[in-house]
Fold each of these.
Amino acid sequence: MVAKLKPDLFAFVAGMAVERGDPIPITCNCGGVITIMPPLQEVLVVCARCESCIKLLVLEGDPGYVMGSDPNGEPRLIPVQGSSREKLDISDEQRAKALEDVRKRFKDSKKGSTGGVNE
Ligand SMILES: [Zn+2]
């Protein structure tokens, strides 16, 4: 019995790429690349370089990027691995605009909350 693996990292994968059935290169935070073959047998892969355990989260379609935040709470765009080149190839302008939109949304969702951080 193998010890249960706990993911160290998460990677987003485009559902479209999984359906197409082509090998999908997953880039780890360390720069190592793990190639996965659909259909996905497992959702946990291990980076051969840094031994991080990466959990794959398959998103429907071809999303390009998803919004996330870094540890400081600053919004950032996370590329969805396996997305089409057109979706991933956005200009700095588009990227800045997308981030601006997220920032606005973050602010709006904070407005109207009555605090309660210490609950
Ligand atoms: Zn790695």
Amino acid sequence: MKASVDYNTIMWLLLVGFLLIHHDHLCSAADPTDGFTQVLLAQDNFKLQKPYNVPLQERYSYKDGARSFWVYDKDKPFKPDSTTRPRTEVRITGHDYSSGIWQFEGYAFVPKGTSGVTIVQIHGAAEGATSLQLRIYNGDMRYYKYNLVATNLYDKWFRVNIIHNVGKGKITVFIDGVKKFVVKDQGPGDLYFKCGVYAAPANSSNYMESRWKGIKLYKK
Ligand SMILES: *[C@@H]1O[C@H](CO)[C@@H](O)[C@H](O)[C@H]1NC(C)=O
């Protein structure tokens, strides 16, 4: 009797131990990057755009692996003949795509007060300029000025993963590894990812800033 109790106790402890050790593995959902291959980015794959009349270092810094982008509502566009809103952005270059399944990944930080601004986008579409804009309005992330994607993002780092399946015409957005938003794209075109700050058509704060680190590109 005593021996069988001890046996059960030992088996129970072994089971608890196994579950504790494998807890993370058993409970974690699939990662957005599962099944993707990283496309290595070099410095010249990061092309910067900023108001044409100010030096880069007055709108951008790159320290300890984090890129900071900022812009003012009344800043000039990125080139003199453009009628677009002001921006300080990095355009991923050298890997424009028009088919396949691509993924952007980065960790973003938006300081409180920054509002009315696109922080990451897919440029290009069959019609129109963009396939996706993720904007911050009052600390929340929206699809353009429409659907709510995520809330309460001010003053913290959050992980952004965007999967663009061109063949299926589908874009999926993950925040902190959680699928938050799925939308139809705008048809194939010369497609590429951008991040930073690009003032929205309206409702922009005077000062807009986002910081990015760990920017990665993947494909399947
Ligand atoms: C933009 O501002 C207008 C006018 O104040 C307001 O009605 C609208 O809800 C704002 N839009 C967003 C996305 O915050």
